[in-house]
């Protein structure tokens, strides 16, 4: 039971991290046969990928608070934020300046999106599609995955536009790419309710954008208020289709 | 004749303390009992701030985010220098400094280019206005806010500002200020934003008119 909770929490963490634009360290149970770096069959590698999906499926809702430094064109911007996710396709993301003023609010519900920028500052705009891919990743389709042989203790799984490096020895995701030039790396793993979670995530995006995210708190499968995904008054609506 | 002179002198000696007592009493009434309408409360506040040059205080900031069950709490130091210089130093949980010098606003996390553009935005104007309010310049605020003021406990005065400009309403629905103590000084602020979030700032260890050099209000 404890093991189950740990796996579930690990999946939640992954969701949280991805929400924060961070990604996560997912604990996955080693597949049958106790694979090693030198003897990992294709079936065992696919089992690892399926274990990743199983962890993510255990996350129904997630909430995280974090701070982030966004480095773009040599300029660093600092924000604090709140991320709320409800699978399969709803999330809300709010960014605030360190002294409390909200600068960005976005709601996604399926293919619809609403954004509010109270300051009207153009630099606060965020690539919502990238956020969606980062925060609500689609399951890895194991049958479509190209899985490379183990290298330095990891397997490299390319599944559609997701690219995941899974550490074989401790069954965690080492690094995850959502697109060719975007990457998330995890650090500062700590135990939260007996679940190992990364509290620092380094993201890099196309356009030479780097984001250092520090997670302050995780909540896995919290009950969410019915108003959570109601678009704010005055928000700009758009369709993602 | 000498008896009459002595009597007048005696009456004068008696009258002096009475006059002083009445004068003091009138002064006290003027200072503390006049807040029975918005104009009267604002007049009282303006009078209290008339000799205000600087403010220095510690603060606790509590952000109630509608998406969260628990608030985000931070602490720091607030400094104000008349007419419109403000410095906020957040110390926990994350260090950051906000500087306001007239229309120049420096905010961590906002690039210099954005800052330049921001100087013309409602936020800069609103922050400048808030700085002026701390100096008791409420007349100026009435150009952009509907202002209501009332007496509160312990001879304090509460001021509620409701932006009248649509651009400003995108930032905040209302801004509440509470003044307390003698002389009246800023005691707390409450900012309700358009998303339903609420920012509460409680001041403590407030010091008036200590020396604050201009240099601390400018970007290094």
The computed structural class of chain B is alpha+beta
Largest sheet of chain A: 13 strands, antiparallel
Tell me the β content of chain B: 35-45%
Per the principal axes of the C-alpha atoms, what is the gross shape of chain A? globular
Account of the 3D structure:
The complex is a heterodimer of chains A (241) and B (220). With 241 residues, chain A is an alpha+beta fold. Chain A is 17% helix and 44% strand. In chain A, strands 6-7-8-9-10-11-12-1-2-3-4-5-13 form a 13-stranded antiparallel β-sheet, with helices on one face. In chain A, helix 1 packs across helix 2. The relative contact order of chain A is 0.23. Chain B has 220 residues and is of the alpha+beta class. Chain B has a 10-stranded antiparallel β-sheet. Chain B is globular and about 80 Å long. At the A-B interface, strand 1, strand 2 and strand 3 of A face helix 3 of B.
Break the fold down into its secondary structure elements and pairings.
The complex is a heterodimer of chains A (241) and B (220).
Chain A: H1 2-19, H2 42-57, E1 61-72, E2 75-86, E3 90-96, E4 102-109, E5 112-116, H3 128-135, E6 145-147, E7 154-159, E8 162-167, E9 172-179, E10 182-192, E11 195-205, E12 209-220, E13 236-239
Chain B: H1 2-32, H2 38-49, E1 54-64, E2 72-81, E3 85-92, E4 96-101, E5 104-106, H3 112-118, H4 122-134, H5 138-141, E6 145-152, E7 156-163, H6 166-169, E8 172-180, E9 185-193, E10 198-208
Antiparallel strand pairs in B: 1-2, 1-10, 2-3, 3-4, 4-5, 6-7, 7-8, 8-9, 9-10
């Amino acid at each position: 039971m404890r093991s189950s909770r740990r796996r579930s929490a690990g999946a939640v963490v992954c969701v949280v991290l991805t929400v924060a634009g961070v990604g996560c360290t997912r604990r996955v149970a080693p597949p049958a046969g106790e694979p090693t770096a030198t003897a990992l069959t294709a079936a065992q590698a696919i089992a690892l990928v399926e274990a990743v999906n199983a962890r993510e499926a255990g996350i129904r809702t997630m909430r995280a608070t974090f701070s982030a430094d966004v480095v773009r064109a040599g300029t660093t911007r600092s924000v604090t934020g709140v991320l709320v996710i409800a699978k399969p396709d709803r999330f809300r993301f709010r960014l605030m300046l360190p002294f409390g003023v909200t600068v960005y609010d976005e709601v996604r519900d399926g293919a619809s999106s609403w954004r509010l920028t109270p300051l009207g500052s153009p630099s606060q705009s965020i690539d919502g599609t990238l956020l969606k891919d980062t925060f609500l990743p689609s399951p890895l389709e194991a049958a479509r995955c190209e899985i490379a042989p183990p290298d330095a203790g990891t397997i490299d799984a390319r599944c559609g536009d997701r690219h995941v490096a899974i550490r074989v020895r401790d069954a965690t995701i080492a690094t995850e790419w959502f697109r060719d030039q975007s990457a998330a790396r995890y650090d500062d793993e700590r135990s939260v309710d007996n679940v190992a979670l990364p509290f620092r995530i380094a993201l890099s995006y196309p356009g030479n954008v780097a984001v250092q995210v520090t997670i302050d708190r995780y909540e896995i499968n919290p009950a969410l208020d019915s108003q959570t995904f109601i678009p704010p008054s005055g928000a700009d609506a758009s369709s993602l289709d | 004749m000498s008896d009459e002179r002595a009597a007048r002198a005696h009456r004068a000696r008696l009258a002096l303390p009475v006059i002083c007592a009445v004068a003091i009493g009138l002064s006290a009434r003027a200072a503390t009992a006049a807040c029975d309408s918005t104009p009267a409360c604002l007049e009282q506040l303006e009078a209290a701030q008339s000799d205000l040059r600087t403010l220095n205080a510690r603060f606790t900031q509590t952000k109630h985010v509608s998406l969260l069950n628990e608030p985000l709490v931070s602490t720091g130091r607030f400094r104000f220098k008349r007419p419109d210089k403000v410095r906020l130093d957040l110390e926990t949980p994350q260090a950051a400094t906000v500087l306001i010098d007239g229309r120049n606003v420096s905010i961590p996390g906002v690039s210099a280019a954005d800052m330049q553009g921001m100087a013309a935005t409602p936020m800069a104007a609103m922050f400048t206005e808030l700085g002026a309010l701390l100096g008791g310049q409420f007349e100026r605020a009435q150009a952009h806010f509907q202002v209501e003021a009332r007496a509160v406990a312990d001879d304090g005065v509460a001021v509620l500002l409701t932006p009248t400009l649509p651009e400003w309403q995108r930032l905040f629905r209302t801004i509440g200020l509470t003044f307390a103590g003698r002389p009246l000084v800023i005691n707390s602020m409450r900012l309700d934003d358009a998303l339903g979030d609420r920012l509460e700032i409680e001041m403590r260890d407030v010091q008036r008119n200590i020396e604050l050099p201009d240099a601390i209000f400018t970007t290094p």
